[in-house]
Amino acid sequence: MKIIKILLYIIAVFAFLLLGAYFFLNEKLPIGENPAKADEMAKNMQTALNKTAWDSTNVITWGYKGGHQYVWDKKNEMVQITWNENKVLLNLKEWNKGKAYKQEKEITDSEIDVLRGQAWKFFCNDSFWLIAPFKVFDEGTTRKIVKTADSEALLVTYASGGVTPGDSYLWFLDKTGVPLKYKLWVKIIPIGGVEATWEKWTKTKTGVSMATQHKLGPVTIVINDLKTGYALSDIEAKENLFEAIK
């Protein structure tokens, strides 16, 4: 009984701390205005990062230390996701053509849908941390200006698309239009207004500027092995990598 009381006490303290964090740290989603000016700010951000180069980039590979690894044939809408003992090939245009492997053995039973579903969620979330600035004009998005204490910020809300439609991001840019950070109002994080940095920018082979590190509270997200190209051979991947799901 004593152990149970101790556990209940620990749970109560933890719940109290979470409640306190919510009330003290939670920010309400700001109300934006002037969508025409917001569109201009969003275009300036994309210009600063060379969206023209991004549009002409056909393939990209990246990963996270100890986590998910990606080879994305952007032009043909196919992606390979590997994690732990799993490898999934997704055809983003024709879902049923996707294949899944565990320990190099192809999965053909009902588990294939589970793995494809996991891979799709990983891809949506992980690619957003890489290319979010190029997604501010996606279908279903709205853009507004939010006035802050000493500047203006770009509020982007996603009414559709991805895994969690309804999420909002408030972008803070430097004078050249390059993102410094954004605040998040997303379903996966219960506290609104949490900040995440966009830093350690690099220019890839195809001329795109991309951030390779984010700090989200105590967590640092580092993007490794980032390469872009015009063909799979540019990133040292085999040309027949996606042959099985064409």
Task: Report on the architecture of this protein.
The chain is an alpha+beta fold and 246 residues long. It has a single domain (2-245), classed as outer membrane lipoprotein receptor (LolB), chain A. It is built from four helices and 14 strands. The strands form two sheets. It has a nine-stranded antiparallel sheet with strand order 6-5-4-3-2-1-14-13-12, with helices on one face.
Tag the structure with descriptive keywords.
246 residues; alpha+beta; 9-stranded antiparallel beta sheet; 5-stranded antiparallel beta sheet
SSE inventory with pairings:
Layout: H1 2-25, H2 35-48, H3 51-56, E1 59-64, E2 69-73, E3 78-83, E4 86-91, E5 99-102, E6 105-106, H4 111-131, E7 141-147, E8 152-158, E9 168-173, E10 179-185, E11 194-197, E12 199-203, E13 209-216, E14 219-229
Antiparallel strand pairs: 1-2, 1-14, 2-3, 3-4, 4-5, 5-6, 7-8, 8-9, 9-10, 10-11, 12-13, 13-14
Nutshell version of this structure?
The chain is of the alpha+beta class. 26% of the residues lie in helices and 34% in strands.
- What about the largest sheet? 9 strands, antiparallel
CATH architecture: Clam
Structural class determined from secondary elements: alpha+beta
State Rg: 20 Å
Q: What integer is the average pLDDT?
A: 89
Cα(first) to Cα(last) distance is 61 Å
Looking at CATH, which topology would you report?
Answer: outer membrane lipoprotein receptor (LolB), chain A
